[in-house]
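Table 4 source record.
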Amino acid sequence: MSCIFCEIAAGRIPARKLFEDDQVMAFHDVSPQAPTHVLVIPKAHIPDLDAVTAGHGTLLGELLLAARKAAAQTGLYGGYRVVVNRGADGGQSVGHLHLHVLGGRPLAWPPG
């Protein structure tokens, strides 16, 4: 079975992209959970946070920098949340590591 985020990263499925480079891509979520909801993905397929190794350190830094850039590009100057879900109980619905950048309204805590 193919991965929808790999298909988006390869350009075979369209997305409302904010930006991309050789390693990461940011695009608007098709089912937003906040007024602003951007997904940041590595272009390489990594199933989830548990599959990350020490060798992914630079890529993880790039993902966080991309989340900050997505927040700035979408005007989330008052604050935003970055979320990584892992596994079904954690709310992960796509088996490809990704960060959610959420904002545009006050976000409650705890989240769920």
